[in-house]
Amino acid sequence: xxxxxxxxxxxxxxxxxxxxxxxxxxxxxxxxxxxxxxxxxxxxxxxxxxxxxxxxxxxxxxxxxxxxxxxxxxxxxxxxxxxxxxxxxxxxxxxxxxxxxxxxxxxxxxxxxxxxxxxxxxxxxxxxxxxxxxxxxxxxxxxxxxxxxxxxxxxxxxxxxxxxxxxxx
Length: 169
What we know:
Acyl dehydratase; alpha+beta; 26% helix; Thiol Ester Dehydrase, Chain A; single chain; 5 helices
């Protein structure tokens, strides 16, 4: 199974639809808030959200939605990455609520060979996340340094360091 892509495998204009989606639970949202010390009552306090917000319910913290989408994109985009170079932009377009299912897709906007090393290049992508009804909730653009095939071959191929199973017995 392929995990990520080499530079040569990216084509400008290609769209990768990430699968599967993820249904966001209250637990997911609250745990992420607690782990990141974001204790804003919009995310953590149902009573507060019901009585004081335009939505009347808790809103999933935006950085969790972004993190989900980034993670969803790894097998298609940055699974072989040498480095994540830049998050150029990040926009939260619409709210996500507990029970919403997030899906993502990434479009390759551009690719540029490295000027300093001939075994890698930079891929520029845009990822959008949307809910089960198609509502776009998050859009971000990033640049990822990915290896060329020569880089991978010099380091052991598709799954370097993977051991061979030893028979029991």
